[in-house]
């Protein structure tokens, strides 16, 4: 993203000297910003998919141990969001057995 900012700054400086050069540099800055945004979106999607895979595995393991997978999932999200502590989650799960 830092490179895109440099392209925009160069486009501003070139605007004083030549509109054609400023237009090319401005377009290049927009292209680089779009590429950076796509790369960040790809990384975020990969993290999300990995979390979903882990959640599916967690549900499977809970079912194998005789614990309600829906309650495990709810505890997972509550822990992740910080709305309950680990001890509270354990107490909740012990009550579901």
TrEMBL record:
GO molecular function, one term: transferase activity
Keyword terms: Transferase
Name used for this protein in its record: Acetyl-CoA carboxylase carboxyltransferase component
